[in-house]
Specification:
single chain; mainly alpha; 2 domains; 5-stranded mixed beta sheet; 24 helices; disordered N terminus; disordered C terminus
Length: 512
C-alpha cells in the first residue's frame, strides 16, 4: 500500500476517533465527579483506624473492626504514603482507585487481545462503557471494597475465556490475573462465588479434550489465586490472633445474626441479575449465548450470592452485581451496533436495548448515589465545636461519626466505629427462644460496650458527643453509669434527630 493511500476508511476513522474521545470524556467526567468528594463512611472509618495502626495502636485490641484484616490492609498503602507526603489519604485513595480501574481494564484487554479474542474496532467504545461502569456509576460507593472487587474479577474471567477457546496466553498475564482474582477473594471470602461459578462453566465449556479442561481447572491463574488466599489465611492466624480469638466470637454472637429478611435480599439480588441480562437476551439472543456473556452472568450471580450471604442489603453490597450486569448489557449493544443491526426488527430491538440500558443505568446510579444526610450535622458541629475536636457518638450508625470526624480534622477516640454491639445485642437478647449460653455472652458484650463508652467519656474527655435520636436517649436515661458519665455535657444544638453535646467547659453556647 502506498504512503499516500489511507489505511483506514474515513468514516471508520472518524467513528474510531469519536469513540476514543468518548472514552476520554467519560474519564474526565469521572475525575470531575470525584475530585474533592468526601469518601463514604466505611472508607473514612478504615482510613481512621489505619492511621491509628500507623501511630502504634494494635488492630482488634486498641480498636475493633468487624471485617478481617484485609479491609484495613487494603487502604494502608494510601495511609502510609499520605503520612510520608503529609497529605490527606483520601486524595491518594481516589488516585489509586482510578489507577486500579485503568490497570484492571488494561490487563483484561491485554489478555483478550493476546488470545485474539477482542476486536480492535469496538474497543474504544467498550472502554468508554467500562469507564462509565467502573468510574462514574459507583457514585458514593467509589473505592469501596465491592468497587475494587468488581474490577479485580475481570482479568481472571478473561483468562477463563481464553481457556474455553483453548488459546495460548503468556505466563506473566496468567499470574497477574491470578493475583487480581486472589485479592478479590481476600477482600471478602463471600466473593469466591464470582470466580468459582465462571470457572465451573469454563471447565465444562472448554474446547477439546479432558486434558484441556483439567488444564483450565489447574491453570497458573487458579494456582496463584489459591496460594494467595491460603497465604492470607495463614497471615491472619499468625499476625492477627486477636481477630480470631476475640473479635470473631463477638461477631458470631452480636453481628452476623442481625440480618435483613432473606426474601427481601433474594428478591432485590435476583432483580439486579435478571433485569439487565433479560434485556440483553431479548434484543441479542445470539450474543447472549456466547462464553463472554455466560462468564459475566455467572460472576454476577456469584456476587449476588455474596449479597445474600452477608445479609445486610446495604446499597454498596449490590455494586458488583449492578456493574457487571450493566457492563454486559452495554457490551452487547456496542457489538450489536458494530455488526449493524439489519432490518426494521433489528433496529427496534437495538432501540429497546438502548432504552433498557438507560433505565438500568439510571436506577443503579440512584441506588449507589444514596448518601447519609451528614452535611447539616457537619455544619452544626463545625459551628459549635472547638478546633480539632475529640469525638464520640452514641448511635448504631457508623455514618454519624464518619466521615464527619475526618472532615473536622478531629480525633476519633472510641475503640468502636459505633455502638453496634448495643443496638444488635439488645434486639437479640429480647428473643425468648435464645439459648442461655448465647444470652450470657450477649449480656457480657453489652456490658463491654457500655463500660467502654463510660471509660471513654471519663478518661478521654471528648469535646463532642453525638446522640442519635430518642431511642438512644432512652438507653442513656435507663443506665445510671452512662447518665453519670454524660453529666459534664450539655446539649447545645441539634441537626435532624442528632443532638450535639459539648463539655460544659468547651465550645460556645449556641446563642453566642
Amino acid at each position: 500500500m502506498s504512503l499516500g493511500q489511507a489505511t483506514v476508511p474515513l468514516p471508520r476513522a472518524r467513528s474510531t476517533l469519536l469513540a476514543w474521545l468518548s472514552a476520554f470524556a467519560v474519564l474526565a467526567a469521572a475525575i470531575a465527579q470525584h475530585a474533592g468528594a468526601t469518601l463514604n463512611p466505611d472508607n473514612s472509618w478504615l482510613l481512621t483506624i489505619g492511621e491509628k495502626w500507623l501511630a502504634g495502636q494494635v488492630p482488634y485490641v486498641d480498636f475493633v473492626e468487624v471485617n478481617p484484616p484485609a479491609s484495613i490492609l487494603l487502604y494502608m498503602p494510601a495511609v502510609a504514603l499520605a503520612h510520608w507526603l503529609d497529605i490527606r489519604p483520601e486524595i491518594l485513595v481516589t488516585l489509586m482507585m482510578f489507577a486500579g480501574v485503568v490497570a484492571g481494564l488494561a490487563l483484561t484487554g491485554r489478555i483478550l487481545r493476546s488470545a485474539d479474542l477482542l476486536d480492535a474496532a469496538p474497543l474504544p467504545w467498550l472502554l468508554a462503557a467500562a469507564l462509565f461502569v467502573f468510574a462514574i456509576l459507583p457514585a458514593n460507593t467509589f473505592a469501596q471494597r465491592e468497587h475494587i472487587a468488581a474490577v479485580l474479577v475481570l482479568p481472571a474471567l478473561a483468562t477463563y475465556r481464553v481457556g474455553i477457546a483453548g488459546r495460548a496466553l503468556p505466563l506473566h498475564l496468567r499470574i497477574l490475573a491470578g493475583l487480581a482474582g486472589g485479592l478479590c477473594i481476600v477482600i471478602k471470602p463471600y466473593f469466591a462465588g464470582a470466580l468459582l461459578l465462571p470457572l465451573a462453566y469454563g471447565v465444562l465449556a472448554a474446547d477439546g479434550s479432558l486434558q484441556r479442561r483439567v488444564g483450565l481447572l489447574f491453570s497458573p491463574t487458579n494456582w496463584v489465586i489459591a496460594l494467595l488466599v491460603c497465604a492470607y489465611g495463614a497471615m491472619v492466624l499468625a499476625l492477627f490472633p486477636a481477630f480470631v480469638q476475640s473479635i470473631m466470637p463477638l461477631l458470631v454472637d452480636a453481628y452476623l445474626p442481625v440480618r435483613v429478611p432473606l426474601w427481601r435480599i433474594a428478591t432485590t439480588s435476583s432483580l439486579c441479575v435478571v433485569v439487565p441480562f433479560l434485556i440483553c437476551g431479548l434484543f441479542d439472543r445470539k450474543g447472549f449465548r456466547t462464553p463472554e456473556t455466560m462468564l459475566l452472568l455467572l460472576a454476577t450471580i456469584g456476587f449476588a450470592l455474596a449479597v445474600i450471604a452477608q445479609g445486610k442489603s446495604w446499597p454498596y453490597h449490590y455494586y458488583p452485581v449492578l456493574s457487571l450486569g450493566l457492563l454486559t448489557l452495554a457490551r452487547s449493544l456496542i457489538l450489536q451496533a458494530s455488526r449493524k443491526a439489519d432490518g426494521r426488527q433489528g433496529l427496534v430491538a437495538f432501540a429497546a436495548g438502548i432504552l433498557g440500558l438507560c433505565l438500568v443505568a439510571s436506577l443503579s446510579y440512584q441506588l449507589l448515589a444514596t448518601r447519609s444526610d451528614s452535611e447539616q450535622l457537619l455544619a452544626a458541629v463545625r459551628r459549635v465545636a472547638p478546633p480539632h475536636p475529640k469525638i464520640v457518638t452514641i448511635t448504631s450508625d457508623l455514618a454519624v461519626g464518619h466521615p464527619l470526624t475526618r472532615a473536622l480534622s478531629g480525633q476519633w477516640i472510641s475503640r468502636f466505629s459505633a455502638r453496634w454491639i448495643t443496638a444488635n445485642g439488645e434486639d437479640l437478647v429480647a428473643d425468648p427462644d435464645l439459648d442461655e449460653a448465647t444470652r450470657a455472652r450477649l449480656m457480657a458484650d453489652l456490658a463491654l460496650d457500655r463500660d467502654t463508652l463510660v471509660q471513654e467519656l471519663d478518661r478521654d474527655r471528648p469535646d463532642v458527643v453525638l446522640v442519635d435520636g430518642e431511642g438512644w436517649w432512652s438507653w442513656i436515661n435507663a443506665d445510671a453509669a452512662v447518665r453519670r458519665a454524660l453529666g459534664p455535657y450539655r446539649v447545645v444544638e441539634g441537626a435532624g434527630k442528632v443532638s450535639i453535646l459539648l463539655r460544659r467547659d468547651a465550645g460556645a453556647d449556641p446563642g453566642t
